[in-house]
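Quiz preparation item.
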């Protein structure tokens, strides 16, 4: 089926783009850590970081009506997977804002992880990619939720280097057999693209 092959190729392209985003997130996070480390006083460092995140959230609230990037962001992820958020520019903006908020938060000394932010960024990037192609008039109507799910796995896999973990965890979260093959292809492409740009994962770069 030519249309099914085209969609699989698009999943591979999404994986490569997500790998580029993962490399950017890795470098951005550690750049933020290095910049905040220049501030000698830890409390001042943390206060400044939280002020920056607060301003970002306030701007999102005033312009879009919601904070979006607060907490782990599962509400936004669920909205994307349910098809409630399907505007490509909004999804792209949220991916950038989440990467910025996470980098500033962790860089300034907040306690937190990167798994949930990776899911958020992957969902918004994947959904935004499909929404953009749909808006461009692609002859095949792409499923924004399906691309969002695959984007989640590709972002986690690309950022952490944990291939099977990314594929298995996203499948367990969705229980959707139809995304297994696209997920494997996208995660492989994501890790390949990230390795070209950054040999380190998000867990190893600070030690190198």
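Solution:
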């Amino acid at each position: 089926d030519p249309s099914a092959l085209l969609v699989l190729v698009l999943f591979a392209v999404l994986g490569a783009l997500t790998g580029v985003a993962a490399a950017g997130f890795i470098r951005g996070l550690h750049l933020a850590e290095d910049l905040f480390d220049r501030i000698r006083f830890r409390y001042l460092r943390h206060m400044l970081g939280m002020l920056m995140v607060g301003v970002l959230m306030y701007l999102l609230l005033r312009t879009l009506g919601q904070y979006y990037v607060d907490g782990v962001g599962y509400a936004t992820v669920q909205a994307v997977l349910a098809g409630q958020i399907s505007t490509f520019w909004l999804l792209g903006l949220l991916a950038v804002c989440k990467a910025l908020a996470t980098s500033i938060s962790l860089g300034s000394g907040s306690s937190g992880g990167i798994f949930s932010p990776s899911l958020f960024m992957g969902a918004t990037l994947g959904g935004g990619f499909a929404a953009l192609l749909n808006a461009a008039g692609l002859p095949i109507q792409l499923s924004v939720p399906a691309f969002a799910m695959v984007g989640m796995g590709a972002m986690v896999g690309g950022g952490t280097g944990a291939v099977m973990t990314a594929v298995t965890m996203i499948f367990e979260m969705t229980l959707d057999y139809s995304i297994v093959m696209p997920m494997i292809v996208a995660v492989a492409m994501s890790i390949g693209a990230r390795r070209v740009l950054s040999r380190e994962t998000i867990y190893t770069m600070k030690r190198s």
